[in-house]
Description:
This protein has a single domain, classed as 2-enoyl-CoA Hydratase, Chain A, domain 1, CATH 3.90.226. The protein is built from 10 helices and 10 strands. It has helices spanning 4-20, 47-52, 68-75, 99-110, 144-160, 178-197, 212-215, 238-245, 256-261, 274-284, and strands at 35-37, 44-46, 82-84, 116-123, 126-133, 164-170, 202-211, 224-227, 233-234, 267-268. The strands form 2 sheets. Strands 3, 4, 5, 6, 7, 8, 9 and 10 form an 8-stranded mixed β-sheet that branches. The protein has a two-stranded antiparallel sheet with strand order 1-2. α5 (144-160) links the parallel β5 and β6 (164-170).
Amino acid sequence: METRFSQRRQRLLDLKVRREGQIPAPARLAGPAVFEQCPGCGEPVPQTQWARGPYVCPRCGYHRPIGGYLRLSQLLDPGTFRELDGTLTSGNPLDFPGYEQKLASARRSTGLAEGVVSAKGKLCGIPLVMVVMDSRFFMGSMGVAVGEKVTRAVETARKAKLPLVIFTASGGARMQEGILSLMQMAKTAQAIQKFQDAGGLYITVMTHPTTGGVTASFASLGDIALAEPGALSGFAGPRVIEQTIGEKLPEGFQRAEYLLEHGFLDAVVPRDRMKETLCSILRLHGKGGAARG
Length: 293
């Protein structure tokens, strides 16, 4: 759990990026030292050290989940952030009891309109479209609005002939939207197919956790598939699988390192090397605009 201090800092960064359309300089963290236990190794880590990490444990390398706007601020060139469909939100299509109140609460606590942020910008001077799922909002579950925002971002990249990078983080389909949520799997996958048929470069980066319908659709369709260290990715979680088959799964099953070893990923990239890795890939592929052979 994030402390109130880190949550407040995250919201301020989010608001700064959205309102000013630019990347903020790293903020100085004032006040008394605040320690927070690392979920990976259990050791106390100063909050200032988490922020310098960025949000990576200096002792064990555990990568904490971070918000969508914060991740964009770490990657996009200053002054290039332009949000796409920032006001697009979910309704309550099935009149699910209490859903509207939960949505309102999630928006207040996170400062997000939905569980995904999409933007046009530049990375190392290269124009692109970047989409980041945010697990703080309904665990990044994919409902109608999330599927629509992802689809619109893909279509924007296709029409503008820009490379596409999507950071995934999801607990699966949003049960409050039922079959309408599951329909987003086919919708996003079709948009990706049209984008790739047009010669676009699609890079997917799986962060912890990426599961359910997101894994079974656009998260697994990248031309190049990357992941952060320790990220879990799969359709069903390991506990569900073990209960279903009645057997113990291999150590590290569905974690990024296991998936890399078994050919599901192209690379596992630490957060502090993510920007340079993406820049190298974009340059290598002619900025994503070359037609396929």
